[in-house]
Amino acid sequence: MKFRVYYFLFLIFSLFFLLPSPIFAKPSQPFAPDKILVKFRENTPDVIKEKFQKQFETKIKDKISRLDVEVMQISRKNLTDLVNQFLLLPFIEYAEPDFVATTMDVPNDPYFNLNLQWGMQKVKAPDAWKISTSNPGVKIAILDTGIDRDHEDLSSKITDNWNCTDSPLDDDSYGHGTHVAGIAAAATNNGTGVAGLGYNASLMNVKVLGDDGSGYYSWIANCITWAADNGAKVINMSLGGPSKSKTLENAVNYAWQKGAVIVAAAGNSGNSSPTYPAYYTNVIAVAATDSNDKKASWSSYGRWVDVAAPGVDIYSTFPNHPYTIGKKLGYDYGSGTSMATPHVSGLAALVWSSSFGTSNANVRKRIESKADKISGSIMYWTYGRINALKAVSP
């Protein structure tokens, strides 16, 4: 028996060198130069996995256990060639680089003298709150750069903290995650600061981007599954990258199957090129609009985008300590599809607590089907700009 196993291994690793030319081209998107995400086919014997690691001089750096994906540290320099070699092996389901995702904000856009929180008025949040104010049992997971945990408008809303990055702290040193969190569910009707669209919903501080505003797909996938396993009803991802990923898509599908509504930024490319994870089927992809209900010039668009939401000059929370983006301490304006996305996540929290909150599919359907068909709908996004009142109204 032992002889047959080793003979089988010999055939696999011998035939490997006779297989066709590479099938994976070097991507333009940044990726970790020393990590590859690998998923073995089901029931691959341990002895083959061990032989594989020895043959290619790899070691397991991390695991995305819910997806059965291994984050492998590599010692060889040419990652693209190595991915191609892995893909040709019959016991490998897939192998891919660990791509880098970034925030989808526009931190240096010009300041406009608009009314504070015009976006809440545009989507009719105050009227929607007469019907649903959500509740603390509805958790919105903010997968981002962290949240300022002692911010006066956010500290009471945070129920969970989790860090998937290599940063030693789950606090927000960059500034992006705090701004996003405030839009989604800052403490509302508390006589302080700003109102969050999700009103009484809770926040999960899930750090997937480092203190420079970027993070690997493996970090994001790990935290998507963690959030889904720990009760997130809504997962907000104001982030993305131009490269697709089986690992990231499988993580999204896992969360959807666990019952979460998943919302992600369409991107700020100003064109119709896909952004991931927003492009995936089980994600609500969000474009950005301005106070005149026009598409923001820099917002990504296309029939793959589902809805639009306010994303230009959005007033919300920022860290009350120095941070990288460098806006004002406490509160300031920000722009991007990153800011549009938490409007949709906050609305999802309201719908979850309405009579329509019976499943993630129903919540998504209400958000999309009740959106206002503003100019650009169909051309720039499938449905329209969200309308909170219509989404929760009988």
Order of helices and strands: HEHEEHEHHEEHEEHEEHEEEEEHHH
For CATH, the homologous superfamily of the largest domain is named as: Peptidase S8/S53 domain
Q: Can you name the CATH architecture of the largest domain?
A: 3-Layer(aba) Sandwich
Q: Which fold name is given in CATH as the topology of the largest domain?
A: Rossmann fold
Strand content: 15-25%
Kindly provide the name of the CATH class of the largest domain. Answer: Alpha Beta
Average of pLDDT: 90
Span of the ends, CA to CA: 67 Å
What does this protein look like?
The chain folds into two domains: 2-99, Peptidase S8 propeptide/proteinase inhibitor I9 (Alpha-Beta Plaits, 2-Layer Sandwich); 104-392, Rossmann fold (3-Layer(aba) Sandwich), CATH 3.40.50.200. The protein has helices spanning 2-15, 46-56, 79-87, 118-122, 125-128, 176-185, 217-229, 246-257, 337-352, 360-369, 388-392; strands at residues 31-40, 58-64, 69-74, 92-103, 139-144, 158-163, 202-207, 214-216, 232-237, 239-240, 261-265, 284-289, 307-310, 314-317, 331-334. The longest helix is centred in the C-terminal third of the chain and has 16 residues, at 337-352. By secondary structure, the chain is an alpha/beta fold. The protein is globular and about 65 Å long. Strand 2 (58-64) and strand 3 form a beta hairpin. A seven-stranded parallel sheet has the order 6-7-5-9-11-12-13, sandwiched between helices. Strands 1, 2, 3, 4, 8 and 10 form a six-stranded antiparallel sheet that branches. Helix 6 packs parallel to helix 9 and helix 7 (217-229) packs parallel to helix 8. It has eleven helices and 15 strands.
